[in-house]
Each structure stands twice: as structure tokens, then as C-alpha cells.
Amino acid sequence: MTLRSSALAFIRGVREIFTLGTATDRAARLGEPVLARVRESAEASRRRLRASRTLADPIVAIELLVAARQHAQVAVISAGGAAQELSSVPPIDALPFDEAERMRAELDDEVRALLGAVDTRSLVALRGLRFGRAFAVAVAIIAITTASIAARIRPVDIALGKAVTTSPLKSESPTPDHVVDGITRGTFAVHTNEAENAFISIDLTTEYRIRRVRVFNRGDGWFDDILPLSVEVSNDGTQWSTLATRTEHFEIWTVDTDKRARFVRVIKPERGYIALNEIEVFGEP
Fold first, then answer.
1. Helices 21-30 and 3-19, packing angle to 10 deg
2. Mean pLDDT taken over the chain
3. For 237, how many CA atoms within 13 A lie in the half-sphere containing its CB?
4. Rounded Cα–Cα distance for residues 107 and 231 (Å)
5. Mean pLDDT, residues 77-105
6. By the 8 A CB rule, do 259 and 243 touch?
7. Confidence category of residue 77, pLDDT binned at 50, 70, 90
8. Is the pLDDT reported for residue 43 higher than 60?
9. Disulfide: which of 75, 137, 145, 248 matches 41 by Cβ 3.0-4.6 Å?
């Protein structure tokens, strides 16, 4: 692609952002009765998708996601799109736990992709957006600037997406990175084997001033089997300092602190195992 054609493509893209010409033409072509059916199917899919994410049982979640996928496919076809090729779902009653969790994640991705291909905006809404776009862009710039300033002032989750190491895991446990993926509900994100001083450790990659650590318990039962539980920090991954130890039941355990450290870990200070949904660490450089 030449520099001139690239520039023209960029200009057309900017023009589309402000005029919404393609979206407006599509809405006018479909008509409001069809768009209403598209919206109904899309919302039915979203309700089931949201509900599936609150469930601990992956089998029940899969059943909801299959229904959500069907509604999303109907929305795509009703909006004039081509039917998407969907992955097959084996008989779920016989699925092992780890395969059920993988199937759950795949179906969640499929539903989100289908819904992302559907535009349910009405012609009236698009016309309103077209005339208010300049104002919306100005508001967005202000919001981004404000968020950037706020991020420097208040602690943020610095554990999100960072490297995680653990003591040996059970075979049905998801991979360690799931404990820092931002999803705080479900069965469990990590499940270690029973061992002396079972642990989950997060490498923040550099030293931070840590303000708060939040630990999210598993969601499928046996909540207190992991107790007692300690939160520790370290600068070198070898010498550890204990911030707090929990001996009582919790769903979300919040530990406030003011320590500089690179590593944060949750450890069971005796023989046992750890099963958690998420670990969040808030702080700043």
C-alpha cells in the first residue's frame, strides 16, 4: 500500500468515525423491526453469558453458554451476517473437570466474538451519535486525562498479567496465570497439591510500593481448607516478610500495607493446599 493510499484510508476511517455513514446505511437498510429482533437476541445472549460467569459449576455454565451462543448466532444472521462456524460441544455430563473448564473458556470466547460482530444501534441513535460525536471525543479526552492523573495518585492492580510460580499443582488446576487474569469469580483459578508450605508467588518484575493485597477465595466450596493462610512480600524472592496471616473464613481478604517489594506470595504455613480465584496487588512505583 502506497503512502497516498494509506493516507486516504486513514481519512476515510476518521470520516466514518464522525459521520457513522456505514452504520447509518446498515440501520436504514435493515429497518427498526429487524433491529429490534437483533437486539432481543443479542440481549438474551448477554444475559446468559453474564450468568455463566457467576457459576462455580462448569457443566451448568457450559449449558448456559451453549444457549448464549445460539442466541448470538441468531442475532448475527438477523442482522444480515453469515452464519458462523461454531465449535462442536461433546456430551458434557461425562467431561472431566479440566476439559469442562477449557470448554467453558472456549465457549465464552465464541459468544463474545459473535456479539462483537453485531451492531444493534437504531437509526435514531446513530443520527444522535453522529451529531454528538465531537462532544463525545472531547469528553473521552478529558476522561483519559483524568484517568491518567488518577492512576498516578491512587494504587492500581500491578499483579494483573504478571508472572506466577506455585508449588506443584493438581492435575485439574488451570495454569498459574489464571490467578492474575482479573476474573475474581468461578470455581478456582489455581489449585495446588497438598504439600508443606504450599504457595502461589507473583513476580511484579520490579520493586513497587505496595498499598494493598486482595485475596479471593475459591467459589465451589471447601472454603476454609486453605486456612491458615499468610501473605508475604520479598525484594529478592528468597527472604520473605509476613504482612498478615488469616485463620478465619473469608470470601475476599484485604491486607493493607505500605511496603516496597518485588514479589508477593500467598503461602500456607503448614501442610495443606491452596485453592484461590484471584490475587490482586495495588500499588505504585
1. 50
2. 85
3. 11
4. 34
5. 84
6. yes
7. confident
8. yes
9. 75
Query: Cell numbers of 149, please?
Result: 492523573
Question: How far apart, in Å, are the Cα atoms of 108 and each of 69, 102, 105, 176?
Answer: 9, 10, 5, 20
Backbone conformation region of residue 20, classed left if phi is above 0, alpha if psi is from -120 to 50, else beta: left
> With contact defined as beta carbons under 8 Å apart, do 279 and 179 qualify?
yes
pLDDT, tens digit, for every residue of 234-268?
999 999 999 999 999 999 999 999 999 999 999 99
Residue 206 has pLDDT above 90, yes or no: yes
**Measured between alpha carbons, how far is 244 from 228 in angstroms, rounded to an integer?**
10
Task: Calculate Rg over the CA atoms of the chain.
Answer: 24
Place of cell 442475532: 75
Instruction: Give strand pairing partners of 285.
Output: none
Cell 518484575 locates to: 205
Q: Are 61 and 52 in contact (CB under 8 A)?
A: yes
Strand 271-272 relative to strand 195-196, pairing: antiparallel
Q: Output the pLDDT for position 37.
A: 86
Q: 3-state secondary structure string, the chain?
A: CCHHHHHHHHHHHHHHHHHCHHHHHHHHHHCHHHHHHHHHHHHHHHHHHHHHCCCCCHHHHHHHHHHHHHHHHHHHHHCCCCCCCCCCCCCHHHCCHHHHHHHHHHHHHHHHHHHHCCCCCCHHHHHHHHHHHHHHHHHHHHHHHHHHHHHHHCCEECCCCCEEEECCECCCCCCHHHHHCCCCCCCCCEEECCEECCEEEEEEEEEEEEEEEEEEECCCCCHHHHCCEEEEEECCCCCCEEEEEECCCCCEEEEEEEEEEEEEEEECCCEECCEEEEEEEEEEC
